[in-house]
Amino acid sequence: MSEQSARTRHTAQDLPDRYREALLPVFGTPQRVLARGEGCRVWDTAGTEYLDLLGGIAVNSLGHAHPAILSALSTQAQTLGHVSNFFATIPQIELAERLLQLAEAPTGSGVFFANSGSEANEAAFKIARRTGRPRVLALVDSFHGRTMGALALTSKEAYRAPFEPLPGGVEFLPAGDEQALADALAPGDVAAVFAEPIQGEAGVLPLSADYLRALRRLTREHGTLLILDEVQTGMGRTGNWFAHQAVPDVQPDVMTLAKGLGGGFPIGAVIAFGAATHDLLRPGQHGTTFGGNPLAAAVGLAVIGTMIDEELLQHTRRVGDQLAQAITALADPRISGVRGEGLLRGIALTEPIAPAVVTAALEAGFILNAPDPSTLRLAPPLIITEAELATFTAALPGLIDAAAAATAEGAR
Ligand SMILES: *Cc1c(COP(=O)(O)O)cnc(C)c1O
C-alpha cells in the first residue's frame, strides 16, 4: 500500500472519533461517514456503495450531483452569490413567481423565503399571531421543526419538555377528529390550524381526504387560517407538486416548504395565499439575511425546471405506486401495510423491529430510516428507477429476517 492510501485509510478510521470530539452530540452516533454521491447512490469513506432510499430525508429530489444543480450553482456563483435583502435578484423573483404558479395561488398571493423548514414555520407562526387571535391549533403527532416557535407547534413531548416554556397558545387536536376540530374552532378565537397533509416524522401518517376537507371548510367558517406544512410532502414528493392538491378545493391560506425545494441546497419558503394573508406581515415585522439568496433560488429554479422537463411528477406517482404494490405483493406476514403517496412511503411492520431492519439494510447497502419503532420510511430521490426500487423490495424479507434474528439474539 502506498503511503498516501495508508494515510487516507487511517484518516477514514479516525473520522468517527473526530466527529465525536468536534460536534455536539445531538444526532447520536452517525451510521457512516459519507464521502460522495451520484444519482441515487452514495459511497462512504471506506468505498462501500449504498442505494439512497431516504434522499437526505425527502430532500435530494434529483439525487446526488445532478448536472442541473451543478450547473445552476456554478453559473449563479459566478454571477452573483449573495446580496442583502435590501436588494432583489432575478432568481429570487423568478422562483417566487414559479412557486405561486405551481401552487395555483390567486392574485394577491406572495412568497417569503427562508433557509429551512423550521424557519418557514416560524414565519407562518408569526403570520398567525398577526391575526390578533390568541389560540393556535396543531395536531397530535405533528412535526414542524426544532426552533422554539416550530417546536411549540410540534407535539412530541420528548422534543418539547427540555425547552419549556415555549411560545404559548398552542393546543393539540387528535388528527382526523372533526368534532374536536369543530369544538376547538367554535369560540372564534383561533388564529390558525397547522397541519401536515401526511405526517412524515410521525411515521408517514396521511390525513384522510375527508379530514383535509373538514379542515378547509371549518377554518374558513371561523375565519381561521389553514396553514399546511408541506416541508416534507411538497415539491413533488407525493406525485403532485403539493400533497394537498390531491384533494380538490383544500387550498390553504399559508403553506410552508423546504426540504425538496433546494434538492439539497438549504432553502425554505412560505406562501401566503390571497390578499387577506398577504398583508398580515407588515414591512419590518420579519426578515432574514440568507433567505431567498440568489444561489438557493437558482437551485430551486433548476430543481423545478428539471422536474418538469423530466416529467418527474408522473414518474414519482408511477414508481411510487409500483413500489407499494410490490411490497404488498410480497405478502410477508411481518408487513402489515404500506402508507403514503408517491415516493413518501411508510412500511408498517407488525413488530417493533424497524430500527434493526434499518441496520440490516445499511449492512446490505440500502439507506432508509425508522421514524417510529414499527415503521420503515422511504423517501428516495424522485429520479429513482423501478429497477433500483425492485432491488430493495427483493431484499426486504431477508432484511426483516436478519432484524428479527438480531432482535431475538439481543433479547437472549
Ligand atoms: C423536516 C421538517 C420540518 C423542519 O425542517 P428543518 O429544515 O429541519 O428545519 C418541518 N416540518 C416538516 C413537516 C418536516 O418534515
UniProtKB/TrEMBL annotation:
GO cellular component assignments: cytoplasm
Broad class of enzyme this protein falls into: transferase
Family matches, as Pfam families: Aminotran_3
GO biological process: L-arginine biosynthetic process
Binding site for pyridoxal 5'-phosphate: 143, 229-232, 289
EC number, as in UniProt: 2.6.1.11
Complex formation: Homodimer.
Protein name: Acetylornithine aminotransferase
Source organism: Candidatus Brachybacterium merdavium
Lineage start: Bacteria, Bacillati, Actinomycetota, Actinomycetes, Micrococcales
